[in-house]
Write a structure and sequence with these properties.
Length: about 260
Amino acid sequence: KAWLKPTLQDIIPLSIRHQRNEWRKYLVNLYYIAKKESVLLYQMSKTGSRSIRESLLAVGFPTARTHRMRLGYLSLLQRKQKLKMITLVRDPMGRHVSHFFHNYHQHVGEEFRNSNRTIEELGQIYLNDPQFQQPPVWFDEHIKAEFGLDIFDHPFEKEKGYTVITQGHIELLVIKLELDDAIKVNAIADFLQIRPFPMLRTNIANKKGYAQTYKTFRNTFPFPKSYLDTMYNSRYANHFYTEKEIASFRSNWQELPA
């Protein structure tokens, strides 16, 4: 009987599956970072970096990808004569909500498939989670702290949507997630001095098990005006996005009536 055949999800606890995947990614990253000609995708989670990594690997370009420095990464990177990195930015609300659902078990305390939370309950959990109470601070906690490069000290071409920052032996390409794939591909190809490549689509929210709940949450949960103000009046939002873009982002979220 089909129902008698347990899946790995039923047998292996989520924490153990996660550790196995993390060890695999760690070793693969060490391999690519150690290569002379390689690029590091280094950015906060849920900004579309997996699609770029898979696309670059598909055309044979050695690419490491991580959201935080692990043992051995930084020492290998500091030895490079030229360090090429790519980082992505995203609408802060879109990024936070996507992260919340992608790590549902971490924030809600149970796996999504075993959960029966209402949209209102999920909204209150989200609003009470300290991780989501401020705009992204990832650049200060990582690139600035680890490489001495303050991304906010460098102008960003908001209309163009991407900028290359050079400091010492570091070349950093900063790209908006919201750009068309063709623009992202050309920017990355120019940066790495390779031919344009097909962009593969991976890790898409609307193909995940929580897709419908995620969509309903985005469209119906009312956020306090003060919270939206915190996100969209921030240094982060205004450094990378135009006033028009910020207004468009804000219109995607329901605001709690006064």
